[in-house]
Amino acid sequence: MRSGKHERRRGEPCATALPGVRQAGGPRAGRACKRFPVLVVLVVVLSPFAGFPATLADLLTAFDLASYARHMRAPVFSATTTTEQPVALTALQGKVVLLNFWATWCPECRPELRGLEQLHHGLASRGLAVLGVNAGEDLTIIQRYTRNLGVTFPLLLDPQHTISQLYGVAGVPTTFLLGRDGRTVALAVGAREWQSPAARRILDALLAEPAPPKDGR
Length: 217
Prior knowledge:
Layout: E1 5-6, E2 33-34, E3 38-39, H1 54-62, E4 66-67, E5 78-80, E6 86-88, E7 96-102, H2 109-123, E8 128-134, H3 139-149, E9 155-157, H4 162-166, E10 171-172, E11 174-178, E12 184-189, H5 197-207
Parallel strand pairs: 7-8, 8-9
Antiparallel strand pairs: 1-3, 2-10, 4-12, 5-6, 7-11, 11-12
């Protein structure tokens, strides 16, 4: 695979992410809505489930998540939230990060955001950081939409699609799971029920991993 823009052909699924990843069962066609092209930044050939304990690999497959090799590091970024708070990925060292790309015009995003809010309340004390990323929408629209949903976890603004392009996001909703050690663990293209037992088993396994030294991210 070579870096560059990816143009979707007629009939193909309309979302993808970091290149070289194997999507278990294939992307869920029709579950993610394309609004911007992919800028392929990281290119690597991955072995499915390489470096993962068999139990975690099984959990990811059961929840229809794509897996990354253990050496794949999450691209770092910094951004500002809708409440003007700075957030840097490097500051979340030692936490499990759930990074969700969403939009107000995305029907599937609405129930997914509610589920993520439940995770935020239930697992933040154990070391889960839930982050939402909105690319290019008006701040007032975002604030009104999320206020009506009761969303309280940090919502990052991505006005120039910088973070979206860094992660190769082609559509929403798209979600990445990052481990305590800063690795990219898994990818979900399309909506998932993150408050479900299957998702909780994955998160419990990641939260059970030891935190690395503070300079280890």
